[in-house]
Amino acid sequence: MARGGDAKLGQAAQFYVWNHIQGKSLREIAQKTGCHATTVMRHIQRICDHRDDPDVRALIETTAGRPGTLGAGVTDEFNRAAKLLKQADTLLVVAADMDRALIIGKTEDGNFHQLDAISQDAAHILLVRLHLKSVSRGRVSRYCHPNPTHRAKWRDQIVDVNEQTAVLPVRGEAPLKILARRRDGQGDAFLSRDLVQAGLRLSEDFILSAASSCVQDTINNVAAILDGALDSQVTGDIAAWGRFIAALRDLGPGLADIALRSCCLNEGLERSEAALGWSARSGKVVLRIALVRLKRHYDALYGAGGGQIE
Predict the structure, then answer these.
(1) Is residue 169 in some structural domain?
(2) Residue 241, exposed/middle/buried by CB under 10 A (0-12, 13-18, 19+)?
(3) Do 61 and 98 fall into the same domain?
(4) Is the overall model pTM greater than 0.70, yes or no?
(5) d(CA 94, CA 106)
């Protein structure tokens, strides 16, 4: 078994301590660390399989003996990064193919230097809680502090012309794109083109309504969104918001949750499953059901084709 230098072994030992010694459930560990429950289980099983190894026993004892409150790591990263972002001329940099996000600063000579590196989960929390503003978007996205006194050199580069909160970073490809490429057992597309278009139609109204900030803050209470709790907070196209809410209400709780997370916030399916407490790999099935219902909703309003985006 791998020894020193194996960071995953240390993570596996921490998962083992949380589960076997502190009594935390696999689901709780998965939700707090951003890992899939099956990944947590594999890490724990790895330790269980080698418990008789003296080095592994020593690692377990060392891990159990140091303070390791579940979720403290992400909290510490958030606090560090939030403090740095309050300094003028600092940015959060996020990329889909980067395991960690970066906090960078700009020196007087115009060069960038790295101030810190944080997990994607900490970056996710920063965007929601601090309402960071987008400086640039693409494969690599950059965000600055919303307070004008903390973003001096980026003031003229803000992408969000209506001062909207930045959209959450996509951790990998958007679920719709991934599932559109997949095939079922008969070789047919898992998501047909009209189902993908229905998801994009929902996303279009979400973007036009410019409600990303308030929706992200209420994402864990979709029932409140359906009840109109955010209607007065919408700053964009009111008609688009009305269409958006009507579609979600037609879906109802559960289906609306996965449609909102996957189609509008581009949240990964594993993360959505963990947040909603669903079993592994159930998200794609529920999402397809939601898209079928969504297509039916748009077909009823606009006729065949559902007002789809070309």
Answers:
(1) no
(2) buried
(3) no
(4) no
(5) 17
